[in-house]
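Shape matters. Shown next:

___
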Amino acid sequence: MDSLKNQLKEKFGFTSFKNLQEPIINNLLEGNNSFVIMPTGGGKSLCYQLPAMILDGTAIVVSPLIALMKNQVDLIRTNNIKDSVAHVLNSTLTKEEIEKVKNDVLTKETKLLFVAPETLSKSNTVEFLKKICVSFIAIDEAHCISEWGHDFRPEYRKIRDIIDQINSNIKIIALTATATPKVQDDIIKNLKIDNLKIFKSSFNRNNLYYEVRAKNDNTDIDLLKFIKLNQNQSGIIYCLSRKNVEELSQLLNMNGVKSLPYHAGLEKKLREENQDKFLKDECDVIVATIAFGMGIDKPDVRYVVHYSIPKSIEGYYQETGRAGRDGGKGHCLMYYSYQDVEKLEKLLSKNKSSDRNIGVMLLKEVSTYAESSISRRKFLLNYFGEKYDLNKNRDHEMDDNLKNDKEKINVKDQLLFLLKNHFTKNQKVQIRDIIKNLPFDEKTGVNEKFWKTIITYATVEGLLEKDIIDFTSIKISDLGNKFISDPREFYVSRDNDFSKSKKIENHSVKSSVVDNELLSKLINLRKGIAKSKSLPPYAIFQEFSLEDMTYKYPETIDEFKNINGVGEGKVNKFGSQFIELIKKHIQENNIEKSDEIVLRTSGSKSSKKLSLIQNVDKKIPLDEISDSRGIEFNVLLAELESIVFSGTKLNIDYYVDDIFDEDQQEELHEYFMSSESEDISDALKEFNGEYDEEELRIFRVKFLSDVS
């Protein structure tokens, strides 16, 4: 053992092993196969790097990403005199570079050779590897083998066949940071490993704080505030699309955050440059697709943000695992909206049936995680088959659900009814079939969502067990049967409500303290102006614009232009009166203005707005504009509302005249003129089904354009 520690010190500079590193390394040195499940930051790479240095021959490391291979090779070379100690062999190399790599391997200078699975499967690679002494094969990111894994790669399923072609007796070490019991089983079966020893570390990263926030139109400014609170700290923001990455990175830079994009669409050289700048602290934030981060060893990432919903819990766990690898605290923030879920489901619908079903199933697990009020950590660990004792660890309070504890409800009777009447021993049942047959009582809040909450809690507490192959099926466990014979109090909290994030809203992020005295004065001023012009108050400014004024305290025309929902027209018409009132209020109350964040944006939104106005001027039907822009009709309506609420005229008479006759238009005009409410739900109640929400919103756009 001492000699192994000496080797560790000599070759890597460390004085002690982490977690299960020592027994894993010894198992490999003794010539045994290994399967390692260890969370990101747990030290997986050393489990094959040190044995490779000790054993004769060259270790082959199968790795899924060029960025991962490059980073690992660079780190290995820093600990060695010769660069030839580690090489990559992939499609990015020139013929001369490939010859150099092969020569270093043949002369036994190379101890670690990193290859992509695509490169490994090439016949010339196989023939070359037959000629050399292979010490062992390490399969990194082994979850890529499984169709049930979050990052399935078909080439990974061919690795066993390739190994058999080279030498079927080669020892294997497979490693992953994320694997559910189903994925673990799939990996082992595919690799057909004999004499296998499984090493499984705890999935718990107790230095990470998990949080989910609603995603809506306020998210950009909320994100900017979050980053400013973590000034000069390294962070990764994950987006689903390349377009999102580019736009968000640009937005952050415009607002004083050093940010760089990273996605597969960038030129290889630029992608590598951006990655290196992040690793060298030349930028604070990388905005990336999920292609970034696998194997990137930057220990001081302080936060990981999911700007878009991740596609699976495994993906989420691995990506959040980039934070706090040095043991320091890391903040894992997800922005969640059901609208994002629907977008992903729509994309999945284009896949073949089996892939679609798996994708939707994994996505629903993410939704359950986001909406559930149970401890985030407990939910995650349960997902990976690990129990977590909340009573022993509650002092951490390292997630938003624990920190902001909600009212607990004792559901002992409901749970007992559920377990006794809908489960028989060892029989799997579809969750949807159970819920369909449960009693609902909307008056007491016992609805579908409530029963789902009970099922989630019962699953995490071990009374129910999800099928490892089909997450939509569950069965009762021994603990569940024990509960039936000896019932006890069982507490749950109602799920988090993200329903507001479904809507496109014009609201700015509200300050924690609204100046209610100023708000009252602004409302009175608005009312007076509205009365003098015979207009409803919201035609002057909407409520959220007034609230924005109460914590930004604009004292100049330029500052007033930054109020949410205020355009040039309204600044010119009403700005001076409101500014005068605000300045007087500041003086009378000795108010010191805070350094409030004002989100600066590029001209792209302005150009889109101009394009929309031009389309309306050309009298193109609104549904055609919606189709041509590739957006849903309600999103187009929100854009139209934003334009007219800010004071710009839009003549949509040509469209309105096709929908409403003269009597209807007169009736609607009278309603909106007399109503003091800007809430469309009040109009729906007033007309009691005569018009739907879409129709009322369309007419309100015309009304506001005509009168304000």
Summary: The chain has a mean pLDDT of 85. The chain is about 50% helix and 10% strand. The longest helix spans residues 568-589.
